[in-house]
Write a structure and sequence with these properties.
Elements (H helix, E strand, L loop, with lengths): L1 E2 L7 H4 L6 E5 L2 E2 L2 E2 L5 H9 L2 E8 L2 H8 L7 E6 L8 H15 L3 E5 L2 H13 L4 E5 L1 E4 L2 E6 L4 E7 L4 E5 L15 E4 L29 E5 L6 H15 L2 E4 L1 H5 L20 E5 L5 H4 L7 E6 L6 H4 L2 E4 L2 H14 L1
Parallel strand pairs: 1-11, 2-5, 2-7, 5-6, 6-13, 7-12, 8-12, 14-15, 14-16, 16-17, 17-18
Antiparallel strand pairs: 3-4, 9-10, 10-11
Helix pairs in contact: 4-5, 6-10
Bound molecules: flavin-adenine dinucleotide (FAD).
């Protein structure tokens, strides 16, 4: 697919765009840097040229200073204003657009998270350019790779727009740690756009377990668990024995066995852990879309013909109500 469109930038900025430079939009929550958003920096480094980080919110200078330690960043721009804490796109998009224009960036990368998916299309529209979603590869400065049809086809997109607004799939651009770098920290511009949307509240599922999107091990349960009681009885002990995050299929989420935030798949989270161990999941393509890049896939299913066995490295045909407790006990005994 080759796309073209009129250059969206005004002449006052035109000269600045000739150099390759990336703005990596970093996420924060309660003034803590969200490490999974560093995938945007990794993508910028793969592209080449200079990479600048961007953070906004309250008590943000400390976040910017933490981000400055990320290897590969030349500079971190921060905007101190509590109005940006929740990342509402109505005010965050104008903020980002102003800073993109000021910095003359050629590429803007953000994670393909709820934040990035909410924000970047609006930023692209404001710049009269188009957005490219969920890239998994970079071929050149104007050509990017992204999966479509739940990962069943791979699209190579070439874009002619002068500013490339892109979300990146975290599992395809492993994010580093905040160490080894020494970027400069600089205050950005704040257009202080009045936000027509008010943040009311959020209801977050709290867990001491590793974050599902970045965990190195994930245990995941499906409809085969039969009920929330069984899900809660079997999956947490298995996760604890492995030090794993818990995931679920959409059928398990829709049936109320597990929280929505645990859904893995096309309309849930993308994960690529070292180990993905699932029980009572059939392996529908929409589920595979979110986990098939896992290094080792192990499954327990009583139906030996279930499609999950076609992608599994290790498969156990059996009743999960017997096998999961047995496995948990063996792991605990190790
Ligand atoms: P099922 O397909 O019902 O499979 C249950 C499995 O459990 C079966 O294989 C069965 O053999 C096994 N089982 C039953 N009892 C036992 C037992 N005692 N011991 C061992 N095994 C047992 N799905 C997702 O997961 N994530 C998504 O993001 C997602 N997005 C979607 C988006 C769209 C647009 C659409 C149309 C669908 C989407 N789906 C998604 C739904 C997807 O198509 C499947 O319906 C869903 O993944 C099925 O979940 P499941 O494997 O848990 O259930």
């Amino acid at each position: 697919l080759r796309t073209s469109g009129p250059p969206a930038i005004t002449s006052q900025y035109a000269t600045a765009y000739r150099l390759l430079s990336t703005l990596a939009v970093l996420e924060q929550r309660e003034s803590k840097l969200n490490m999974s958003s560093l995938a945007a920096v990794t993508a910028g480094m793969k592209l080449g040229g200079s990479v600048t980080g961007f953070v906004a919110g309250s008590n943000i200078k400390a976040v910017a200073e933490e981000a400055a330690k990320v290897e590969g960043l030349e500079k971190v721009i921060y905007v101190e204003n509590g109005a940006y804490d929740k990342g509402l796109p109505e005010n965050y998009a104008p903020l980002l657009v102003e800073n993109i224009k000021k910095g003359g960036f050629t590429h803007v990368f953000a994670g393909h998270s709820a934040f990035g998916k909410n924000l970047m299309p609006r930023v692209a529209a404001m710049l009269d350019t188009q957005q490219i979603s969920d890239i998994t590869g970079i071929e050149s400065e104007d050509t990017f790779v992204r999966p479509i049809y739940a990962g069943n086809a791979i699209l190579t997109v070439q874009i002619a727009d002068p500013i490339k607004i892109i979300t990146v799939r975290g599992t395809a651009f492993a994010s580093g740690e905040a160490q080894g770098g020494s970027a400069s920290v600089e205050e950005g511009v704040d257009p202080k756009v009045e936000c027509p949307t008010e943040w009311v509240s959020e209801d977050l599922a709290k867990s001491d377990r590793p974050d599902l999107a970045t965990a190195s091990k994930v245990v995941s349960g499906g409809r085969g668990l039969k009920s929330k009681e069984e899900f809660d009885r079997l999956m947490p002990p298995l996760a604890d024995a492995l030090g794993a995050a818990i995931g679920a299929s959409r059928a398990a989420v829709d049936s109320g066995f597990a929280d929505n935030s645990l859904q893995v798949g096309q309309t849930g989270k993308n994960v690529a852990p070292q180990l993905y161990l699932c029980a009572g999941i059939s392996g529908a393509i929409q589920h595979l879309a979110g986990m098939k890049d896992s290094k080792v896939i192990a499954c327990i299913n009583k139906d030996g013909d279930a499609p999950i066995f076609q992608v599994a490295d290790v498969g156990l045909v059996g009743d999960l109500f017997e096998r999961v407790p047995e496995l948990t006990e063996k792991l605990k005994a190790q």
